[in-house]
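Sharing a chain and its predicted structure for anyone who wants a worked example. Both blocks are below, sequence first, tokens second.
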Amino acid sequence: EKEEPVVLATEKDLTHLQQAIDKSAMNTEIFDSEQEDKKPTPQFGQQIEDTLKDGVVIVFSDAHVTPKKLSSAQKAMLTICKELNPDMVINLGDIFDFASISSHDKMAWEDRFTLEDELEAGIEYMQSIQKATPTSKKYFLYSNHDCRFNKFLAKHAPQFRGVKGFSLEDHVPKEWINCMSLNLNKNTMFLHQYNGGVHAGYNNVVKSGISIVTGHTHIMECKPFTDYNGTRYGIQTGTLSSIQDNPFFNYTVGTPLNWIAGFIVLTYINGELQMPEFCTINKDNKAVFRGKIVK
């Protein structure tokens, strides 16, 4: 029997294949027969773009909200949202911890919040933000702790894929736009994490080529970087959680932590990002913004 000749894929063929794969991945959506004719909601796997010529953006990360108790930073952010009425509020991820479904072992006989209690607490806080600044556009960026929800179910109950309620996206309030990363004005990238370590801010801004805002490390800083293209910023947003008494941080076993509690406020003028402002928590557990205690 005559063998068929082997046809090797060309570089053009491979490029078209990759484009098809990327398009398929970016357009994945949860099926809902009642919303077939509506515009698909962006999903967590997407990178999306937006623009803001002149305005204010409040950004927070790593809230690790605990049931029935808000941190000083979480309370302060609600106050500042009411005062500034920002154009956008961006959650960079880890608003949930989901310790009960973590792959990490328990710390001895520690008690952990139930997933139901955590989910309810995080959703309630997002709803509080909605009430504080109802007109702002709101983004929910996916992160390592948040993804525990979908990863756990995908591993242990894959048969329920597509069933409503089995994805975190189903529980996030509809006022929040879900995505993996946000490119604002094509000059500022928002995502949960990029580089790690104490030099993360510097490495992020040098390697990205544009301003970049990240969470994950719980470090708060701004690393300006200037070259022939102008000045851009490597910004880390700290943690919106309480550092000293959050049970989710018991794994640190009392070691000194180079973390800062708070959030950041960004201002855009004619589409360009200005030097960021920080709201931080002082040694008396009081929030400080623009030189004044936040009440």
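Comments welcome. The radius of gyration is 21 Å.
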